[in-house]
Amino acid sequence: MLLPWEYGVRNLARRPIRTGLTLLAMSIVVSLILVAIGFIRGLERSLEVSGDPDVVLIYSLTSEGNIENSTIDASVPDLINASLGAAVSRFGVIHSSPELFLASRVALRSGESGFGLIRGVTTTAPLVRRSVKLIEGRWPGTGEVIMGRLVAAKLGSKPDSFEIGQEIEFEGKKWKISGLFAADGSTFESEIWCRLDDFQLFTKRQDLSLIAMLLPSGGNSAEIELFCKERVDLELVAAREQAYFASLQEFYRPVRLVAWTIVWLVAGAGVFAGLNMMYGAVAGRVREFATLRSIGYRRLAIFVSLLQEGLLLTAAASLLAGGLGLLLLDGLAVKFTMGAFRLQMDGLTVLIGCGIGLVLGLFGSIPPAIKALRAEICYGLKAI
Amino acid sequence: MKLFNILILAAVLLCLLGCGESASTIPGGPTSANFDPKWIAAEAPTDPLNVGEAREKVKDKQPIRMVGRIGGSPNPFVDGVAAFTLMDLSLPDCAGGDCSDDGCCTPEELKRNLATVKFVNDYGKAVAVDARELLNVDAKSKVAVEGTAQRDEAGNLVVLAGRLYVYPAE
């Protein structure tokens, strides 16, 4: 016969301070796990949504896959548009976006500064970069920029530093903010966009970093890839944007491995914290267990009741941590080398975090429960 | 007797392993469902030009026999099309990847010794099957191709190929 469900629940309330402290400790452990998993999921999502399956990037063969290092001749877009008919064309406008992309020190009026990612674009950019939506203001004119939603996080400054009409400075020139844009959480959101001709003028560069071309839905990029192979003199390489970001996922694999290591280390520490708490909790209850056994409850019934207590406590801690995570951590901007992304407290993150929390409760309860039930009834009844 | 049996078994195993190895490296062997032997030449063409030499000598629309090694970039193939880049045999193997390594060729050297090979159908269009599958070749395979040269003003050489010979692995 098992002990009544209420017995375990009431036991938790009998020692409110101990229960409260255990709950707090487990909540912190689960919260740390949630932060680490949210970081991994956020980074993965940011790179996943950044790659449009219908967009092909053309960049320099010698850039070794890093677009910031890429430099191609400014005549290449015209050459490609004249030679190939692969890109989407509507009303005579070819959906091909020549871009100059680089990192530069950005100074704010408040005196703060940091390395920002700046992309010089033309009016064809929104036709190709379909996730980008202007959410406030207007398209930049001469000497103006539009800012992604995560630029503040990337620069480590306050979001109110980037209001429309304010000025920022980079490449030795003051630029006025004319608009703000969103891009479905992709890496574009941590970028500053300005007019390509302006950017080339102030960086004293005539070249481009890349050309992004939009193919018809499900279109084949082989024609573009073949063109790049045939024109050896141009030193170009073409890659699907999705494949490019998939290669970045691979590049950031060590970061994700470190984050997962942190998850397991924190979880391991959580198991030991749980063990410690549960040992303390059952140590003073040896007489109670002996009494239960003397009135007829079997060891298994008491063991199950102890597991129930541990699981209830960690379930509550997981719920608390999950709730706090969703309220306080979800969407929190995190800065990293190639931009910024938001912590992702989605269903999977909460499921993994809470799952680990429950496992901690289960495995944290088993050893102390075994130890407590090993004592003989006669000795247990005499225990102080 | 027991030792003799073990020796026999070991010999049979070694033979089997040896057979497996050679079967997988037969150049041009039919390993893919898209493999088409009609593109494969039974014998190597006589006096083929090396890639660098061909870039200097061959004119537009001239018939060409060229030998080289598939490479020139980390991915010398074009996905979904029977085309690849061929580099001069004098270039080191590392030219297939990172040319910035010490002792390897410079990008300029690579450009002077690189050509594109494209297998075309009767209409002059590139065959829409990946070269790795159609021809059973891989990066760094030493091959010879026969076809027609296509030159442009920038000096690029594209071979519109009809036949390929894969040299046995050295």
Compact description:
Chain A is α+β, with helices and mostly antiparallel strands. Helix content of chain A is 51%, strand content 21%.
Question: How would you characterize the overall build of this protein?
Answer:
The complex is a heterodimer of chains A (384) and B (170). With 384 residues, chain A is of the alpha+beta class. Chain A contains 13 helices and 14 strands. Chain B has 170 residues and is of the alpha/beta class. Helix content of chain B is 24%, strand content 24%. Chain B has helices at residues 2-24, 51-57, 107-112, 131-134, and strands spanning 49-50, 63-70, 83-87, 114-119, 142-151, 157-166. In chain B, strands 2-3-4-6-5 form a five-stranded mixed barrel. In chain B, 35% of the residues are buried. The A-B interface holds A 61-62, 64, 220-222, 225-226, 229-235, 237 and B 73, 76, 78-81, 83-85, 98, 107, 111, 114-116, 118, 126, 128, 152, 154-156, 158.
Any descriptors?
A: 384 residues; alpha+beta; six-stranded mixed β-barrel; two-stranded antiparallel ribbon; elongated; B: 170 residues; globular
Biggest β-sheet strands, sense, barrel of chain A:
6 strands, mixed, barrel
**Span between termini of chain A:** 27 Å
Share of β-strand residues of chain A: 15-25%
**End-to-end span of chain B in angstroms?**
40 Å
Q: Poorly predicted ranges of chain B (pLDDT <50, ≥5 residues)? A: 14-28
Q: State the helicity of chain A in percent bands.
A: 40-55%
Count of discrete alpha- or pi-helical segments spanning 4 or more residues of chain B:
4
Percent in helix of chain B: 10-25%
Structural class of the secondary structure composition of chain B?
A: alpha/beta
Name the helix and strand elements of chain A from N-terminus to C-terminus, one letter apiece: HHEHEEEEHEEHEEEHEHEHHHHEEHH
Principal-axis shape of chain A equals elongated
**Average of pLDDT of chain B:** 79
Biggest interface in this structure? A-B, 16 and 23 residues
Instruction: Note the beta-strand portion of chain B.
Output: 15-25%
- What structural class results from the helix and strand content of chain A? alpha+beta
- In total, the number of strands of chain A is 14
Multimerization status = heterodimer
**Adjacency order of strands in the biggest sheet of chain B:** 2-3-4-6-5
The count of β-strands of chain B is: 6
